[in-house]
Amino acid sequence: MAPEVKLYTSKREREMIDYSADLFAILKTTEKLERAYVRDAISAKDYESSCTKLLAQFRTLCTTLKGQVPDVAQFAREHNMECPAALNRLVSSGMPATIEHGKVSSGTSSGSGSSEVNVASTVQYYIGAMDALKLDMTATDEVYPLLSDIMQSLHKVSKLPPEFSGKVKLKHWLSLLHSMPASQRLTEEEVRQLLFDLESSYNDFISQLGM
């Protein structure tokens, strides 16, 4: 009988193996999700919800595995994974395709009542994000969800042009935050610039809607 091969010798090593398995699963799941979306096998609304959850899980895992897995693409190669769509979404983009390319999820109604609700929600998200920054909530994992909420809400407001300046600015910040560790805080200069961009974006939003 062949001797038993132990994959770990300590609790810490076992945890790292478990986390690596979780990363493997997230990459596989995201690849399948991206393919389903491209093939129109899943609605934009369901895709966006699932992708947002996977992105949050991925960011948390990357922080945990920072010392063990500094390069996710290399991790995929070492485990013989063919997941180009997942690597693009999780590593390069950092946001669902519906947000990146400005497609409104199919669950969004174009009725006037729904439009008013979407506008009110967007205003609330803008104000909430600016208030949070002023209260010194500046860690990446605190700021990213706030900006993501604004972006998703903006895409539900049908009156805005596709290249609305606020969306462009938010894409920039979301991409920047995606590349940063979850616990890293924005510098004072970055917070000041983000607040300026949010305020100008908010004013443009109000102006576009004639409010």
From TrEMBL:
Alphabetically ordered keywords of this record: Endosome, Protein transport, Transport
Start and end residues of each VPS28 C-terminal domain: 114-210
Subcellular location: Endosome
Keyword Signal: no
GO cellular component: ESCRT I complex
Protein name per the record: Vacuolar protein sorting-associated protein 28 homolog
Organism, as annotated: Chloropicon primus
VPS28 N-terminal domain sequence ranges: 1-101
Family as reported in the entry's similarity comment: Belongs to the VPS28 family.
Domain of life assignment: Eukaryota
Function recorded in the entry: Component of the ESCRT-I complex (endosomal sorting complex required for transport I), a regulator of vesicular trafficking process.
PANTHER family: VACUOLAR PROTEIN SORTING 28, ISOFORM 2 VPS28, VACUOLAR PROTEIN SORTING-ASSOCIATED PROTEIN 28 HOMOLOG
Main location: other
GO molecular function: protein-containing complex binding
One GO term (biological process): protein transport to vacuole involved in ubiquitin-dependent protein catabolic process via the multivesicular body sorting pathway
